[in-house]
Amino acid sequence: MHRNSSTIRYLCLHSSFFTESHFQFLGRRCKRYYPVEVLTSETRGKGSGFSSLMSSLSSFINTYLIPIGLGNLARKFYFVWLIWNAIYIGIVYFTFPETKGRTLEELKEVFNASNPVKRSIAKRTVYVPKGTT
């Protein structure tokens, strides 16, 4: 057994508590609602189903395949994981439209555009009538 096994146990307990109590509470809740909110009524069922499928696949990978990768590649697997996450961040950055600070009407315009990403980052002009500032 490792000399600092009590420290390792403490860190494992602390990280699992942090993950379960904070990330699960704050981060996971939005994952289910985002596809439902941004899709139209006609595509909401398919989008919600696809979102659930992707969530289940990622849970399967995290539960069953990562331990196999860690067992076979040991520390090298972290580099595989790092590269995968970098690719995923790039995909999200370049293909997901920005929705922050927009009304539902503006989001409808963004998602109905031929290139939603370009439309979401285009500069907007806001008309402010005289005497209202």
Automatic annotation (TrEMBL):
It is found in: Membrane. Coiled coil: none annotated. One of its GO terms (cellular component) is membrane. It is a multi-pass membrane protein. GO terms for molecular function: carbohydrate:proton symporter activity. Pfam families: Sugar_tr. The chain crosses the membrane at residues 77-96. Its main location: membrane. The keyword ATP-binding does not apply. This is Major facilitator superfamily (MFS) profile domain-containing protein. It comes from Bifiguratus adelaidae. The lineage of its organism: Eukaryota, Fungi, Fungi incertae sedis, Mucoromycota, Mucoromycotina.
